[in-house]
Design a protein that fits this description.
The complex is a heterodimer of chains A (497) and B (393).
Chain A lengths: L6 H4 L6 E2 L2 E6 L2 E9 L4 E5 H8 L8 H8 L3 E2 L8 H10 L9 E5 L27 H11 L6 E7 L7 H18 L2 E7 L7 H9 L3 E5 L4 H7 L7 H16 L4 E7 L7 H10 L4 E2 L1 E3 L10 H4 L3 H20 L5 E2 H11 L19 E4 L4 E3 L2 H8 L8 E2 L4 H5 L2 H8 L22 H8 L10 H19 L2 H11 L13
Parallel strand pairs in A: 6-7, 6-14, 7-8, 8-9, 9-10, 10-12, 11-13
Antiparallel strand pairs in A: 1-5, 2-3, 3-4, 14-15, 15-16
Chain B lengths: L5 E7 L6 E6 L14 E4 L9 H4 L5 E3 L12 E4 L11 E5 L4 E6 L7 E3 L23 H11 L6 E5 L8 H13 L4 E5 L8 H5 L8 E6 L5 H8 L4 H14 L3 E7 L2 H4 L2 H11 L5 E5 L6 H4 L1 H4 L7 H13 L4 E4 L23 E2 L16 E2 L20
Parallel strand pairs in B: 2-3, 3-4, 4-5, 8-9, 9-10, 10-11, 11-12, 12-13, 13-14
Antiparallel strand pairs in B: 1-5, 1-7, 2-6, 6-7, 15-16
Helix pairs in contact in B: 2-3, 8-11
The chains are: A alpha/beta (497), B alpha/beta (393).
């Protein structure tokens, strides 16, 4: 017969070569390792087999070797296993680099009703209009916005409390829309607000321009009000009322909420999650406190070790999964992001978990006074007197910001794959670099990974999500996948290389 | 039911060269787009009336049952096959030397193909159309002619072979010719994709037809498996490079997987590979094997009863569907697969080669089911073929 058997094509005698790979012993099963490629494709295998693999002793025709080959961890030579798929995976994973920053944050005022201990910004009294963004700054900021190349721009208004300077929100929106008549970019508007004292006029405006509203809900009334003191001590009541009014005006899907977790919060994982369910919210973002703003000065009262957050998160996650099993869909946003990194080949929109860093490559902050920063954290450092990351002012063209010493510093330590401690971490293709965070916590942009809370938090999340995926029954696996995978309607926006 | 594709014919006054002609009935006459000189008028079954005004036009010839209605001295043919073999709108190739007539285009058919070449640079174990190393470059000019005779509102057309890219720039010329005459027709080229490992060749298809797409086979997530199935060393690497070149050239790509046994054994891994490496593909078709050609010689290596694929099919279809890669099942009778997969099935077998078995007569889902290839034999029949008597879901 003129047909040849499988062995004629398998080239077993030619062996294999290793492609760049990293590994990590599984904390819950030290006999096995996670092995990842430079693009973040991965598999879990026995530790002994990894030794055999590295020794060149593995049968290249075995099922495991074939899996390793298909995930670009070994190669059988360019005529058999070309690098084209691996390169395509890298391009896909890093696709966010091609369009320039998509997220543009406008700080329209520092004024706020609240006097939260942990406040991430140097908030100002509600009467101090000197801390509002002026018309001149707004005009220049809009000029700069359109100097960026992205076809899709998200404009997020924040504060302080941006509704205290609603006139500027309206003004900026209208200026941006006017400029966009000829620019024809895809625009999305977001407002981050307590939603207190929303007027009908404001709601009409947000509805007209299809705003997404993002608010803070820290948990049940006792917790929210304790975390967020304001005159009248009725922050919770006003937030709930605001969420309700906004939903009526803009629709259910236009409102999302996130929590800030204080030391007080850590005792109430179930209660916090139950509050989100009670309010009919289908996503919750459990955010630990960051070391910025006023938080450091009041560290003794507010801060907590990372391990306490992780214990809290596991309890909350169990409860969220139980709620999902009962038939009510609720997604934990950060866990979902980690899962999407593990389960999909795509890049994502979350600027804090990117390499190269999302600072100025993914997001830009235009402060009320015309200063520009790579991130909100950099702005808070500046508010405390440290302008290491002040990349420029709205009077300067974007090209000058990119040429600034601050930007240079950011980029020098903004590529995780090149950082000590990251460069040989199995999770690095899925993780991010955050020089601002390391500078703030450790006084050094590169940072020291073994003592880095940022690192411990990321690795903890990857380990936890991997373990949950592995141990999940089919029902739980489906819930976790739902968090990671895009909805059918959003697929059109997923860009691939 | 299948219709004959060729028959003998008695040709009278017919010129000695072969040629392709549009069959035109009375109803089409006013709306037809083919030139009268390239058409044959179908006189069969026309009412008794004076047709002289019509028959005196310069038709290439006539289809008739009797000479009585044909103007004296004009070319006409008597088909010896079933009368419905040639119908209005079809394109016939008349081969006078062999006294033979073949259908080259079937109006309303779901399996019209521009057959580009018999040559191929793969040698697939299950090839239904075994390649021949023949010099058949003459096909191209015939296909160009055929394209001009196909209905301009034809919904879809395949270009197949053999390996169409062996025509090199000839294929691009043919596609451009379709863009002129059939710009609204969905044009699906079945190619092994290897030629596109030269990106310049892929680029030569950029923007040349508004509804062009490619069906490219991938039989495994690793070279040893794919190269074995297509019997060519290095084919996997070239096809993969070709897929990326097509994507960069802005082409729409479908992945076609024939469900031969060794491929089914790694089907879930292949689904994962497609999502992680080729997420840009438009569609994945998982296709039951066609029991003809080389497949018959390699049955032992290839055949797996669809019933025994159930777990692999469920895993792969669920995975692709969940990851938003559109997926379909071709050539798998409904009674052989889990009901969960029924919504993914397509009636994929071209009508001229599709049949049902005796069991199907009383089956309540026969109308939804694609049935069988006409040449299915007992040894290619799933043991689970049966009449389905109720659909309670």
């Amino acid at each position: 017969m003129k047909f040849l058997p499988p062995e004629a094509f398998a080239k077993r005698q030619e062996g294999y070569r290793l492609l760049p790979m990293r590994f990590r012993r599984l904390p819950w099963d030290t006999e096995r390792v996670l092995v990842s490629s430079i693009s973040g494709d991965w598999l879990i295998m026995p530790r002994t087999m990894l030794d055999a693999l590295v020794d060149g002793a593995m049968d290249p025709g075995s099922v495991l070797a074939t899996d390793l080959e298909a995930r670009h961890l070994i190669t059988r030579g360019p005529l058999s296993t070309p690098l084209a798929p691996l390169l395509s995976q890298v391009r896909t994973r890093k696709r966010f680099l091609q369009a320039g920053p998509a997220l543009h944050l406008f700080v329209v005022s520092l004024r706020c009703h609240h006097t939260c201990n942990y406040c991430q910004v140097s908030r100002q009294d509600t009467a101090k209009t000197a801390f509002d963004m002026s018309g001149d700054v707004a005009e220049l900021a809009v000029e700069r916005l359109f100097e960026w190349p992205g076809h899709h721009l998200t404009i997020e208004f924040q504060g302080g409390e941006p509704l205290l300077h609603f006139g500027r929100v309206r003004d900026l929106t209208e200026r941006i829309l006017a400029r966009n008549e000829e620019q024809k970019r895809g625009l999305k508007f977001v407002l981050t607000s307590t939603l207190h004292d929303l007027t009908d006029e404001q709601l009409d405006f947000f509805a007209e321009h299809k705003f997404q509203l993002s608010t803070s809900l820290d948990g049940p009334e006792w917790l929210h009000d304790a975390n967020r003191p304001r005159p009248g001590r009725d922050s919770y009541r006003r937030t709930i009322e605001g969420i309700g009014r906004a939903r009526c005006a803009l629709g259910e899907d236009a409102i999302s909420a996130l929590t800030t977790l204080t030391q007080r919060s850590l005792s109430a994982p179930q209660e916090i999650v139950d509050e989100y369910r009670k309010q009919g919210l289908h996503s919750i973002f459990l955010r630990p406190l960051s070391p910025y703003g006023f938080a450091r000065r009041t560290a003794a009262r507010n801060s907590y070790p990372l391990a306490s957050f992780q214990t809290f998160y596991r309890k909350a996650l169990d409860h969220i999964l139980a709620i999902n099993r009962s038939g009510y869909a609720m997604k934990e946003v950060y866990g979902g992001l980690i899962l999407s990194q593990l389960l999909t080949p795509f890049s994502h929109g979350y600027v804090d978990l990117r390499s190269p860093t999302g600072g100025c490559l993914g997001a830009v902050v235009y402060d009320y006074d015309g200063q520009v920063y790579p991130s909100d954290e950099a702005r808070m450092l500046a508010a405390m007197g440290d302008t290491t990351f002040a990349i420029g002012r709205v009077e300067q063209p974007v090209a000058e910001w990119l040429d600034s010493p601050a930007m240079q510093r950011l980029l020098d330590s903004g590529v995780a794959e090149s950082l000590p401690g990251c460069s040989d971490c199995a999770f690095v293709p899925l993780c991010g670099a955050d020089p601002v965070d390391h500078y703030a916590r450790q006084g050094d942009l590169v940072g020291h990974r073994p003592s880095s809370d940022f690192c411990a938090k990321q690795i903890g999340f990857f380990d936890l999500m991997l373990q949950r995926l592995e141990l999940a029954d089919p029902e739980e696996r489906k819930i976790l996948e739902d968090w990671a995978l895009p909805e059918a309607s959003t697929k059109a926006h997923v860009e691939v290389a | 039911m299948s219709l004959a594709l060729a028959s003998r014919a008695v040709l009278t006054n017919w010129p000695s060269h072969s040629g392709q002609y549009k069959v035109t009935g009375l109803l089409d006459f006013s709306s037809g787009n083919a030139a009268i000189e390239r058409s044959v008028l179908d006189l069969r079954g026309l009412p008794e009336c004076d047709l002289e005004a019509l028959t005196s036009l310069p038709w290439m010839g006539f289809l008739a049952n009797h000479q009585t209605r044909v103007p004296p001295g004009r070319a006409w043919m008597l088909l010896q096959g079933p009368p419905d073999m040639a119908r209005s709108g079809d394109v016939l190739e008349v081969q006078p030397v062999a006294s033979r007539v073949a259908i080259r285009y079937r109006r309303g058919g779901n399996g019209n193909v521009l057959f580009a070449t018999e040559r191929c640079d793969n040698y697939c174990l299950m090839c239904s159309q075994p390649p021949r190393q023949v010099a058949d470059g003459w096909r191209l000019s015939k296909l160009r002619e055929l394209v001009e005779l196909i209905d301009a509102d034809e919904v879809s057309l395949a270009i197949s072979g053999g390996e169409p890219t062996l025509l090199e720039q000839g294929l691009a010329d043919l596609v451009r010719h379709c863009a002129v005459h059939l710009p609204r027709t969905q044009l699906h080229v079945l190619s092994n994709g290897r030629a596109f490992s030269d990106p310049a060749y892929a680029n030569s298809f950029a923007g040349i037809h508004p509804r062009l797409s490619w069906g490219i086979p991938l039989y495994g997530d690793n070279f040893a498996l794919h190269d074995y199935v297509v019997q060519r060393v290095g084919a996997f690497a070239e096809t993969l490079r070709g897929l990326y070149a097509l994507e960069r050239a802005g082409q729409r790509v479908e992945i076609r997987v024939v469900l031969v046994k060794p491929t089914v054994e790694r089907l879930a891994a292949l689904a994962r590979f497609i999502y992680h490496n080729l997420p840009f593909v438009d569609h994945v078709a998982l296709m039951g094997i066609e029991p003809i050609g080389f497949a018959k010689a390699n049955r032992e290596a290839l055949w797996i009863d669809p019933v025994d694929m159930a777990a692999a099919l469920l895993d792969s279809v669920r995975y692709l569907n969940r990851h938003l890669i559109p997926v379909s099942l071709y050539n798998l009778p409904l009674c052989t697969i889990p009901r969960e997969l029924w919504p993914f099935t397509k009636r994929s077998i071209s009508d001229w080669k599709q049949d049902y078995l005796p069991e199907c007569a009383s089956c309540v889902v026969k109308e939804q089911c694609g049935g069988f290839f006409s040449w299915v034999t007992d040894e290619w029949r799933s043991r689970s073929v049966k009449s389905i008597s109720e659909v309670c879901r």
